[in-house]
Amino acid sequence: MKITILGSLESDDPKSYDIVVDQVASALRKHKHRVSIFGVHDDLRKLVSGFSRRKPDLVFNLAETFGESLNGDSGVAAVLDLLGIHYTGGGPGELYLRQD
Description:
By secondary structure, this protein is of the alpha/beta class. 40% of the residues lie in helices and 19% in strands. It has a three-stranded parallel β-sheet, sandwiched between helices.
């Protein structure tokens, strides 16, 4: 299966994602999945074009923020929904409600 791991970046540095991203990638590769890592900070166009290019079967969604927005995870899930991409974790509504 072609899986993209999506992680939040602390800055525009593509390697500033959480260490858990590499751990999940390693576990998925052990099970013969084709894995790519995609980090995003605050660029919506980059988010959309990155998925258009990758065309994953599944996104392992580890995004917790989007830019400076601590509620950005619900927005990211909403974009995945709009793009028709299957992903792990809660949907935008569930992610929004857990912020309360």
